[in-house]
Design goal:
372 residues, 43% strand, Neuraminidase, disordered N terminus, 4-stranded antiparallel beta sheet, globular, 2 helices, mainly beta
Amino acid sequence: MDTRLTLAGAVALTLIAGPAAAAGAVETTVVAEGLDQPWGLDFLPDGSMIVTEKSGALRLVAADGTVSEPIAGVPEVDTRSQGGLLDVTLHPDFANNRFVYFSYAEAGEGGTSTAVARGRLSADGRSLEFVERIFQQQPKVDSTKHYGSRIVFDGQGHVFVTLGERSDEEFRGQAQDLDSHLGKIVRLNEDGSVPADNPFVGRDGARPEIWSYGHRNVQAAVLHPETGALWEIEHGPMGGDELNIAEAGKNYGWPLVSYGKNYSGTPVNEGEAEGEGFEPPIIQWTPVIAPSGMIVYGGDAFPDWKGDVFVGGLRSTALVRLEVNGKDVREAERLLEDQGNRIRDVAEGPDGAIYVITDDSNGQIIRLMPAD
């Protein structure tokens, strides 16, 4: 991939030209298909997968690709526009407690918002038991866009949830308001209660769940295995997708600064890309990749890629590989670009393969392994 890098606090990736550089380096296999706009994917200890469908179904997919009937017990979800049943993540101790966490668009008084629930997967895998909602984004607003919605455990008894600012100009300014969950990343205890060491606990007028703010629509997030830091990538408007390291109490600028423009072509706010008091992105993409799903690869199947970050691209229809050296990050190549699939999530399998799901009414799970 031919890229041009410029330094201006962040590294601006302007994509010039070039085919997927490693199109011949991997072999792809369709593991399962027929999924209705799959959104989130995680692996069970036995190697099977649990997958959400935007339409509201939660399913198990066996290693041989057999897709189960919908798992019972999922709450009602609002499936309009960008809503639906969204991310799914297993508790780190799933083998013992069988807890499944999932996010979804929830309707209620005032409109919709992102909610997170958890339940125990039954022994036969057919239902969720003891389902309880552990978080509800406030306020609900009259929008069906920008739900964010990645769920990330930190291994220390906490869980991060990424939340969009709901897109419309009348709401998006709340990304800067600490009395609103819009445009925030929140940090919860695993039961949904508030950790005592969250950065805004005890501050008047601030919601105590907030970890970081000034975000637009974060749909890619991962805990870095070496540093324990939360890496996130959020959608920019027309340009300006951002990779950030989300730190406690920090402000990431939206919608006061942005590397992108409004979809009308007008400047965002005063047209400034960065500003005092706002954390600049590690890198940004213009044109956008439309990020969704993210891993730091740690398997043995691709030893040369250990430590690299892989990001699903919706607009770019590619699996984007980033090389990382501390906070020095650069785009290395785009995989699967020639297949034309909107990639919604990325996961590393127990076999060391990389798995992606495609955002389509006939959605697929695709496995990447080294080519012979």
